[in-house]
Write a structure and sequence with these properties.
Helix content is 40%, strand content 18%. It is an alpha/beta fold and 217 residues long. The chain has a single domain, classed as 3-Layer(aba) Sandwich (Rossmann fold). It has a 7-stranded mixed beta sheet, sandwiched between helices. The longest helix has 15 residues.
Length: 217
């Protein structure tokens, strides 16, 4: 048995067949998108966190094919809204089709462009209750700062892919994504408005982890 076998067992046991999510994965693969979306157990974790938080407004940075978007949007109540930012127009088009197929087009808006350029325009729509950051990793420290600025007390911020196969602990690692993960942790530690932790994960996506923070004030 290995990590992926356990993920398969969890998925088979806890998740009934889901045409919208399965179709989103198939359509993304057929469109040539990289298979780097969260796993099903991770998507359900995001869904549960958003439910626990009572989220009505969610901001996602990094849409890809909309798989995590669907999980998060399903946690929204009637009248809830999710804005997701995607750099690649092709990815955004695939995501929009997947989101529409899932019956969530009335709750989700996909905005195309570099997130650091798009984020300032969201100030008028803040605060957001929940943030999921899963985009280009070198910008994670700045994405986190922007999320805090768009938050309220009680908002939750989740950042994916921060452990990097354990390289997070290597101060001399040459990969800029690893160094960005280390800077992210330094930013979280220095930010007095949040309480933060990082949880390591293993599974079909390998050895990685999520950083999670709650905004206190």
């Amino acid at each position: 048995m290995n990590f992926s076998d356990v993920d398969d067992y969890i998925t088979a046991t806890l998740f009934p067949p889901d045409d919208a999510l399965d179709s989103a994965l198939k359509a993304s693969d057929a469109a040539g998108l990289p298979s780097i979306q969260v796993s099903a157990p991770q998507g359900k974790m995001l869904h549960i966190l958003a439910l626990m938080n009572g989220s009505r407004k969610i901001l996602e940075i990094g849409t890809l094919g909309g798989y995590s978007t669907i999980w998060l949007a399903r946690a929204l109540p009637e009248g809830g809204r999710l804005v997701t930012l995607e750099y690649d127009p092709h990815h955004a088009a695939v995501a929009r089709a997947n989101i529409e197929r899932a019956g969530l087009a009335d709750k989700v808006e996909v905005r195309v462009g570099a997130a650091l350029e798009t984020l300032p325009s969201l100030a008028a729509e803040a605060p957001f209750d929940f943030f999921f950051i899963d985009a280009d990793k070198p910008n994670n420290p700045e994405y986190f700062r922007r999320a805090v600025a768009l938050s309220r007390p009680g908002s939750v911020i989740v950042v994916d892919n921060v452990v990097r196969d354990g390289a997070l602990a290597d101060a001399q690692h040459s990969d800029e994504r690893v160094q960005a993960s280390r800077r992210l942790h330094e930013v979280m530690a220095a930010e007095p408005r949040v309480t933060a932790t990082t949880i390591q994960t293993v599974g079909s996506k390998g050895w990685d982890g999520f950083a999670m923070a709650r905004v206190n004030r």
